[in-house]
């Protein structure tokens, strides 16, 4: 029998004690039992189209296909990449969806994996890749829609369109529906799209006017990331609406299937989103999903994003990267800083947390004056006194050293492959399938590796990421206790 080193055992015990401290939100005790698995897909992985794989902007677990045999679990994950490798500028990368086969052999909560097996608990294998098209069957593109607006037609609202005439998509979150169709949220619009099981656009939902990016009084979906040879947009930033690259980053269907919740990455421009220190008051849009083809805005709330101090003691606002609904009024929210981690110049992240958001006591602003672009909700970041925001409670600290250390990972120096990468943007839940633990779930969290590799190939050409970056797609798996989720 193999025994743990006493120092390692003590560290594991302390990590478990810290993890098991409940987070109280609206009188409910949520428990993080800590990391139980880690896995990777290599940075140079190619998909079936011969292009560099990159994922982790959005995730959905196939809960119906999830199975357990002893301490071994198997299933599939749908993993959504964004608009392709675009360090220099956006490219004509075809929008797509990846299917990942998952095998999970979780470590007992609080225990340390055996030496040499720290990152072997999750085996992730790329199984398939599916292209996404517009309603005519034409491939969508990652190119920035610099000045392109596809006119409204039939039930379709105006849509972002690249200069090559294709529907422009910067995919960020996915919800898979029982019939195989899916909702996908996007940064450019910021819109919510419904695609068929075959990947063809079926319908689109435009957010309230307050979130639609406007330049010179007209909708303009540019994100200031022009493609090769293209000019900058006319005015770098929108005057109102979502800030560049700050669209509907998080989206989730409520457990009862009645509502679809989508959250803007940070505050709209007119609400302080023009500054990194005042963009705190973002919005949660709650849509009635009883008619999948025609989502109807039912509720809307202000969600205050967490703030933290950077290395220079300046106040910063964490960006919202993904959500998972726990009920009609509660959801998990993944929030993080930027510019730090493996693959970028900054070494140590100062903020990466999963929080619990409670909407039950917040002011419902749906359909009111703040849905118009000319009525700021939080001018210069100061929330209107008539509005009560949602409550946000910390739950999981992804940067927690003791938890990461158990699996051979760290946050900060050395800035190597075991340092967490910058962008953690995908999250999904699935049951542990244990009748003795009916409220326990595995929470999968994945990074967006930005397609950073030294052996890349996309849109007909090879590439090497800057500064030698070679970032794997990584999965972190936590075991959590979420009371009442099954009954929701």
Map the helices and strands:
Elements: H1 6-19, E1 23-25, E2 28-41, E3 58-61, E4 67-69, E5 72-80, E6 96-104, E7 122-131, E8 149-150, E9 159-160, E10 171-176, E11 182-186, E12 192-195, E13 201-205, E14 214-215, E15 218-219, E16 248-253, E17 259-264, E18 281-288, E19 296-304, E20 307-309, E21 315-317, E22 319-325, E23 330-336, E24 352-358, E25 391-397, H2 401-406, E26 424-431, E27 440-447, E28 456-458, E29 461-463, E30 473-481
Antiparallel strand pairs: 1-2, 2-30, 3-5, 4-5, 5-6, 6-7, 8-9, 10-11, 11-12, 12-13, 14-15, 16-17, 17-18, 18-19, 20-21, 22-23, 23-24, 24-25, 26-27, 27-30, 28-29
Summarize this, please?
With 488 residues, this protein is mainly beta. 4% of the residues lie in helices and 36% in strands. The strands form 9 sheets. Strands 1-2-30-27-26 form a 5-stranded antiparallel β-sheet. Strands 3, 4, 5, 6 and 7 form a 5-stranded antiparallel β-sheet that branches.
What can you tell me about this protein's structure?
- By secondary structure, this protein is mostly beta strands.
- Helix content is 4%, strand content 36%.
- It is built from 2 helices and 30 strands.
- The protein has helices spanning 6-19, 401-406, and strands at 23-25, 28-41, 58-61, 67-69, 72-80, 96-104, 122-131, 149-150, 159-160, 171-176, 182-186, 192-195, 201-205, 214-215, 218-219, 248-253, 259-264, 281-288, 296-304, 307-309, 315-317, 319-325, 330-336, 352-358, 391-397, 424-431, 440-447, 456-458, 461-463, 473-481.
- The strands form 9 sheets. The chain has a 5-stranded antiparallel sheet with strand order 1-2-30-27-26.
- A hairpin with an 8-residue loop joins strand 8 (149-150) and strand 9 (159-160).
- The longest helix has 14 residues, at 6-19.
- Residues 1-11 have low confidence and may be disordered.
